[in-house]
Amino acid sequence: MDLDVFVTAHRAEWDRLDHLLRRGRRLGGAEADELVALYQRTSTHLSLIQTSTPDPLLTARLTQLVARARATVTGTRRASWRDAVTFLTTGFPAAVYRSRHWWVPTALVSTLLAALIGWWIGTHPEVQAAIGAPAELREMTRPGGQYETYYSSHPAASFAAQVWTNNAQAAATCLVLGAFVGIPVLYILFLNMLNLGVGIGLMAGAGRLDVFLGLVLPHGLLELTAVFVAAGTGLRLGWTLIDPGPTTRRAALAQQGRAAIGMAIGLALVLFVSGLIEGFVTPSGLPTWARIAIGIAAELAFLAYVYVLGGRAARAGDTGDVEEADRSAELPTAA
Hints:
The chain has 335 residues and is mainly α. It is 79% helix and 0% strand. The two termini are 14 Å apart.
């Protein structure tokens, strides 16, 4: 394609589009229709130039022109409470449901890994000795030791806020770093399972595994599920780099990235609930069975939320992505 000839043929259209955009809301009906037609044509022109004879200056000008035209054509929309309700009742649970083939296997493999690490440490005194001196291990695992007092070492409200902040950051990190082919996500997940496995192994070696599980399960079921969802979503995002599917890699990453951002917001709310349980229920004087029952109830409520509401929304076509009008424009591709 001869770029000079192409520019000469279409410059008048671009200038006319620029003129209409400058007039803003003072357009008549015919002029508004003309603006839409010129926007569509200019989008096609930009695509042709990008794929045939890319010119940096011309591409920059047309990109800006197309972006302005799209903003004028689609308009702007303010978020409302209805958007928040829609996100919580359809968008977020649908996104979690649709990614279940990633986070459910992640949860199973990770739980098995933590159990194996705990068994290895609990049944091998030499491994326990490598972790710490006998006096240090006794201080950690004895009645009233560090494992038990950890959950009551600070006021419940501040402890819950600290736990929520730390867990939300970990979940967001898994989602963001998934773009690096998922490798950092696997590392973060392994560290979490290693810490859990060490606690299981040391308390099992001291004959107090039941106490440890009574402290971890009330909040840990929901907390770990949120971490597994974040890790699975991050791994899915990383896999999109390798296999974007039928769309372009850029479009696939954009869709998964938008869903991941929404997932981070939703998981922050889930982790807020687990933080409240960890701050107020875990260190409480409730019987162990009651604390564990609260944790199981919270976990079952979340799973029902995902598989009932999320499954229904996913079957209706909701992907957890933002509304189509709020997405970046995808330029047509030249054949």
